[in-house]
Each structure stands twice: as structure tokens, then as C-alpha cells.
Amino acid sequence: QTVLQGIILLPLRVICIVFILLLAWLSASIATCCQPGRGFLPLKGWRRRMIQTTLSSLTRMAYFVMGFQVKVKGKVASLPEAPIFVAAPHSSFFDAIICALTGMPSIVSRAENLSTPVFGTILGALQPVAVSRQDPDSRKNTVAEITRRALSRGQWPQVI
């Protein structure tokens, strides 16, 4: 009986996850379409709210379809309380759960990830701090950008 359930559930889960991923891509594309100052200015207004609500909900939904149920104990630190949010170790796909639960903050990511089809568009909507592995000054530039965003007095979202 469990094998039969797996044979039926696996394709359904995959179809649901692909559908959710395409909705996330569409939402990210709409929110960043014709964005002034792409990457240099923070998203504001409806664009930021759309990213926060839609992508957060879709990410939670995708993890639920995969069989994960996450409960938050305590209160997530707000932007004024913690402009920089540290999550460690950040080495797996579970990092997206943290992003969804904290309102889709900006993240630090490899610059190459932005050119990945579908995922790159979604990642770009989070306005990441892009780290280039080829640039020898990348570490210094990354620290400067994180500091600039943290000191922006709420103009930029939290950085994780």
C-alpha cells in the first residue's frame, strides 16, 4: 500500500512543486518588471509587498507539498531590531524556509546564481548582495554593501 501511495503521490508532488515554482517566477517577474535602479535601489511599495507576501506564501506552500511543516516559536526579529539576520550553517535548500519565515529578506549569494533560469529571476527579486568569486575585491565589496544596507534605516529589507 505504501508503494502504491508513493507511485501516486510523487508525481502529484512534483507537478505541484513545478506549478508553485512557475507561480513564484511569474510573481518575481512582475514585481521586478521595469524596476527603476534595478539592483541599486531597494524595491518599494507594491513591489516589495508582492515579493514579501507572494514569494513567502509560495515557498511555504512548496515545503508543505514536500512534506515539511515548520512552526515558529518566539518572535522573528523585525528590521529595526536586527537589520542583519544571521542564519548558519547556510548550506542547503532549507535556507529558503528561513527566508520565507522572515519575510523574504535580501540574501548574500554567488553572482552566478542570478543567471540561473527561473531560480535566477526569483533570487533577483530578493535583491541579493551578489558575491563574485572572480573579483579579488569581492569580499571587501560585499561587506561594504551589507553595511550600507544595514545602515539604510529601513529602506532595504533585512539581510540574511
Automatic annotation (TrEMBL):
Predominant location: membrane
Organism superkingdom: Eukaryota
TM stretches of this protein: 7-28
Domain Phospholipid/glycerol acyltransferase: 70-156
Cellular localization per UniProt: Membrane
GO cellular component, one term: endoplasmic reticulum
Keyword Chloroplast assigned: no
UniProt-listed Pfam families: Acyltransferase
GO function terms (MF aspect): 1-acylglycerophosphocholine O-acyltransferase activity; lysophosphatidic acid acyltransferase activity
Keyword vocabulary terms for this entry: Acyltransferase, Lipid metabolism, Membrane, Transferase, Transmembrane, Transmembrane helix
GO BP of this protein: lipid metabolic process
InterPro entries the record matches: Plipid/glycerol_acylTrfase (IPR002123)
Similarity section: Belongs to the 1-acyl-sn-glycerol-3-phosphate acyltransferase family.
Protein name: PCAT2 acyltransferase
